[in-house]
Amino acid sequence: MPNPTRIEINCETGVESIIELTDAEVAELAYQAELAAEKKAEEDAKAEADATAKAALLEKLGITADEAKLLLA
Amino acid sequence: MANTFELIASSTVGSGGASSIDFTSIPSTYTDLAIYLSARQSRSELVSNTRIEFNGSSANLSCRYLQGTGSAAVSSSSASYLFAASPANTATANTFGNSFIYIPNYAGSTYKSVSWDAVTETNATGAEAYLVAGLWSNTAAITSVKLLSLSSDNFMQYSTAYLYGVKNA
Hints:
The complex is a heterodimer.
Chain A: E1 5-10, E2 16-20, H1 23-61, H2 65-72
Antiparallel strand pairs in A: 1-2
Chain B: E1 3-12, E2 20-24, E3 32-39, E4 47-54, E5 61-68, E6 73-78, E7 83-87, E8 97-104, E9 112-119, E10 129-136, E11 145-149, E12 160-168
Antiparallel strand pairs in B: 1-12, 2-11, 3-8, 3-12, 4-7, 4-11, 5-6, 5-10, 8-9, 9-10
């Protein structure tokens, strides 16, 4: 099975090339995808944890998010 | 002062798909860049993410985004990537998502801000909308732009990308 290709368009010449990825580029792409999945999962988890902590704090203080904004304004 | 959009280059993905669409040797003669992307990815999901890189570098990219899923709204960020959603291969057949990416002062010597709005398409629940504020923390002029999948999937046949230069007339 051939490797995936990429499209390269040279904006100066207008020439479009379809270039087959090398094995090293395929491996790099797979590595980058794995890395991206890990980082995105970490960032999503952090965002969720932050939102949960914020909600818990508001509940502890007994105020709403709008009231908290008012205090900080 | 009127702004003018001038088509610099465009591409349509062929039958084999493509892992990325790369615009290279972008002239520095415009004020801003604008990209219209109509894309569908090969991943076996409803939605996948498309990311952008500049000058062959995947470093120093970040974004903050609002994501609407149809049932929830999410505000989140990434310290590593600049991306938005595209439909993937379990979305309704032959549907494509639309993106508009705007890069002001791309040839300047300050960090490059990017705005990106995107919608996916499917005749079911699970379509998404993204509003993205991005940053490339690099002072180099942008001379190349790469659009690719965040998950190393392919853009499917008939995905298209149009690169425009914007000039103050």
